[in-house]
Amino acid sequence: MTNFTNFRFEADSDGIALATWDMPDRSMNVITPQVMDELSQLIEKVAADEAIKGCVITSGKESFSGGADLTMLQSSNAEFMRVAKEKGEEAANTFLFEESRKLSLLYRRLETCGKPFAVAIHGVCLGGAFELALACHFRVLSDVDSTRVGLPEVKVGLFPGAGGTQRVARLMQTGDALQMLFKGEQLRPLMARNMGLAHAVAPRDQIVQTAKDWIKNGGSAVAPWDQKGYKLPSNKVYSAAGMQIWPPANAIYRRETQDNYPAIRAILETVYQGLQLPMDLALKVESRWFAKILRSKEAAAMIRTLFLSMQDLNKGARRPKDVPPTSIKKVGVVGAGFMGASVAYVTANAGLQVVLIDRDVEAAEKGKAHSHKLMSDQIMKGRAKTADRDALLERITASADYSDLTDCDLVIEAVFEDPKVKAEVIQKVEAAIRPDCIFASNTSTLPISGLAKNAKNAGQFIGIHFFSPVEKMMLVEIILGKETGDKALATALDYVRLIKKTPIVVNDSRGFFANRCVLGYILEGHLMLIEGVPAAMIEQAGKQAGMPVGPLSLNDEVGVDLGLKILRATKAQLGDAAIVPEQEELLTALVEKEGRFGRKNRKGFYDYPEGGQKRLWPGLKELQVNPVEAELIDMQELKQRLLVAQALEAARTFEEGVITDPREADVGSILGFGFAPYTGGALSYIDFMGAKTFVELCQKLQARHGERFAPPKLLLDMAASGETFYGRAAAKKAA
Fold first, then answer.
1. What's the N-to-C CA distance of the chain in angstroms?
2. Which top-rank group of organisms is this from (predicted)?
3. Which of 136, 163, 262, 422 is deepest in the core (most CB within 10 A)?
4. What is the CATH number of domain 2-295?
5. How many CB atoms lie within 10 A of CB 27?
6. What CATH number labels 515-730?
């Protein structure tokens, strides 16, 4: 038996080796330089030892591996900068290419070492770890629901760079392979086997034996693509079949990405070029593209926000350190309308007991039925069993009696957005709950400090703002009132972690963070329409800029009538100067004259025919006094206006101290309202452009479109000093 630090290695009496990957002091195996070094020694040992017939690789942990340690990639970039400074750009490029190829060459050595390698996978096996599996000659997965395989690198602005693009494209039809690589989704065991990515699925306690049996029965040590006479699944690139794939693939890439994602373009290029070459050259092509993408600002931004920052926030970066862990077992939800019912569902789904309160038992039961529907949908899709639904519904108590909240650890009110209604509910809840119970309000616009005035203990009152639809949206805004204490914050963060969502902590202000930014996006769309820009161009500009939907479509989703209501409430509280009168006129015409409330009543900026595709309402043209010819409009400027409007608002919230951590602004902007993910988020958009360039762009837009584009003092100072938001945050932390 040979011992490594990260692997246990032993051979059985049949001469079959078992390498168990089990990193000390880590809950999950990750690929590090040390792991790569040990894996290399292990491969050479198997290859050289005549007594060893083959080797099975498995994991000693609950999961196989999450892939490469992304901080390793970040240090490669830092080293690139050092080499570039000392020896020039060309030497730095060579260094990065050689560095980023190491894993690919290691896996190729495993694949061609002359001995069969099998892999037995239980739990998640993603990214570079799944690329290791693809280089093995036989792959068996456990039939457990938690087992998942996939190549999710595109989600952080990268692509599989250790042979993943080449092996997947040789195992599957080209169209299917491209789709899998573009989406980066995690696959269940049977799906992976049916797609040709795995050879077998077996019970967990039999996967290692299944892999060993394959070697014992003479499993081949030669990968399909290294065998004589191998044919590509979809024939050659330049063949009749190939030509039916590549032109549409290019068109789909453009439609889905608007050419904003260099990594997805690199996948297209790598597969296209690689399939025309023998494997070793194809892997070299992949490595060249990988080194190029590793240097892209999109990869840097997305890795920082969607991996590192998100991980920090999910682990409790903003949790007060001196508050001991809380024990939340029972949660009260007051208000069984759409939001309250959805909050009850995600809470019960996390295994917590829920008391769902409404004005009468019938209304509360109706809210509980929402959970029944959501679980039934999961059952229909094969993602849950009837027993799961029964157990979840068992955890929800529907009631009209506030005294049922007596033993709750946390109560969330989700009643109508009206200060008077909320004040009444707060008093009723407070009469029923324990003195140490934390009380939260799910509000999207009402300041928490104002609501807390109705509470007996403002220190235990906090805002927990969910986004709709609650079960799908991953972001939760936690709002601190002026008097909110650390225990309330710690409890709210612990609760959000329990329901597996990502929290951002914001200070109290009207609209908080996400809604302020998103209202800027919708306003800009409205003003473009008023200027005479064709509605289809506005929507297309939003999508081309990288937003999930155009501003008019988004307004329909949240409700055109709700937009008008928020605007009038703002005007009543802050005066005429706080709103744009033209926007009020447009929304009044739509809601009060035309009865167009949005998707909810099948007519807003779009028409929503029964069973048909939504389409822009033709009557929008009648609302435009001076329509502008499409040819005269600068599309680039429309895209800039839509992103700059949101980024400027994010910068203002930072200047006002509403949001205090750039990580939260960036994660919140992508998860909360879909701010162009390739930018890394609303503040990263400014940082990567440079404050000076961003301020110049704002001033150009200000001159053409008005004072809403005026950069705040903070940005003017940053432009003068060359500072970044992340640089300021790091300096503040160090101080």
1. 51
2. Bacteria
3. 163
4. 3.90.226.10
5. 8
6. 1.10.1040.50
